Amino acid sequence: MKVKYNFRLEAYCLMDNHVHLLIDDNGNDISKVLKSINISYAYYFNNTYTRVGHLFQDRFKSEVINDDNYLLSASAYIHNNPVKAGIVSIPQEYKWSSYNYYLGKENYRGGLIDTERILGLFSSNKKQAMEEYYDYVLKYEPKTDVIDVEEDKIIIKKENGNYLESYEVAQKFVNNELQAVEIGIDTLATDKILKRELIIKLRKNSCLTLKEIGQLVGGISPSMVCKMLKNT
Asked: What is the pTM of this model?
């Protein structure tokens, strides 16, 4: 469909019940583009898994991206979707997104993903741009004006039985985890292994900010939380 419509696919993330596509339509009718993608994918999926009928429940939803800041936010939100759904602890662990392509870890045949515009917002040096984009995505905290964050949170709460939907619930979770191993919050400061495990669980099973996660595991900074996530 990229060949047919000559659009640019700048990011994607395929989840169990929805897919995010960040597309520069290049002047094409986005409805026709998405209709063509959906129909061809439905044919492929039904044929592969010997099924019939509709594959997609609802019509697609789209939002116009008007500036570079929103473009970066949208790409980071898309790549963080599996983290917010509690499937992985960091975006590069997820196989079905374009994130690892941005890190230079995967090559897609036919140039499926166009990274130039987004990476170019960080640096003209590709290696430096990849490193800065990696940090940007990992530290990214979604805002309610970016895509359909609230709708995705509802999906997460319904489907993830371990979801911690508030700071208070997460605090009780941390207390229970500490009680289970019979240590206090003060001891946690020196237990790096347990602290990292708690950070990963909080990141996977909540929509808490890095600052809030840091507070819950003994008052460490957001940058330290980010560093510990990188080392997992």
From this structure: 0.65
